[in-house]
Amino acid sequence: MSAADTYKKKLGQEIADLLGDEFTFYKSKLMLKRKRASGFDVIVLAGSNKWSPLIDVSFYFGRNFDNARKVEKALNAHPMPYQIQQYSPNVNSMLGLDYSGDGNWEVNIEESSQDVAIKIKSAIEKIAFPFFERFTTLEAAQEALTKEDSWCFSPKGPFYHMLFNVDAALGDLEHFKKWSKCLDNFYIEQVLEKIAILESSGFEI
Fold it and tell me: Which pLDDT tens digit goes with each residue over 175-186?
């Protein structure tokens, strides 16, 4: 394990401790999770280790819905951390978000991580927490993904599975079939295969 990875594991635990008992930190995935009624709030530490001991630290954040995980299981697909997500360096594109700080931090892993943890914890509360409250339901996620809301990744191209899983979890694959006309043939073939698997399995939420 690199010194940078060891630093991030330590940093993640410090952030989790600052956020309180609601969040659990999973060191192997650099992931913080908080249980919600319909799923989980998820934060994943990221960034570049290229210029160690100076590294960049950022974080992904998203919502993971229980019923969407049932879709993944029915498809025998690799479980995804979230069905709707955003990345902290994109914070300036999140229209209407009241935040003027950083979304990416350059840190020296040879120095204390305590101040960095405090800064990122504050950013999580001001960036990710409003996101979590905006997308508490599958219906809210469906609407945002369909409209390519500035608060989330677009589901077009390789991220189509986000909207697919949400629509399937809502029992609304007709919505996805109409929306998927915007996809390239390469992805449409994958979509048709997924739909066939669900239909043949008699999948129901």
Answer: 999 999 999 999
- The span from the CA of 191 to the CA of 164, in Å, is 8
The three-state secondary structure class of 101 is coil
Distance CA 105, CA 128 (A): 16
Band of the pLDDT at 51, cuts 50, 70, 90? confident
Q: Which residues of 65-100 are buried (b: 16+ CB within 10 A; e: fewer)?
A: bebbbbbbebbeeeebbbbbbbbbbbbeebeebeee
What percent of the chain shows pLDDT beyond 70?
Answer: 100
Residues paired with 60 in a beta bridge: 44, 87
Beta bridge partners of 54: 108
pLDDT at 202: 81
What are the CA-CA distances from residue 90 to residues 15, 26, 97, 113, 138 (Å)? 21, 24, 11, 23, 23
Q: Give start and end residues of each alpha helix (H) in the chain.
A: 3-19, 66-74, 114-123, 129-134, 138-147, 160-169, 173-179, 185-201
End-to-end CA distance of the chain: 41
1 pLDDT above the threshold of 80: no
Under 8 Å between Cβ of 40 and 118: no
pLDDT band per the 50, 70, 90 thresholds, residue 85: very high
Residue 121: alpha-carbon gap to chain centroid: 17
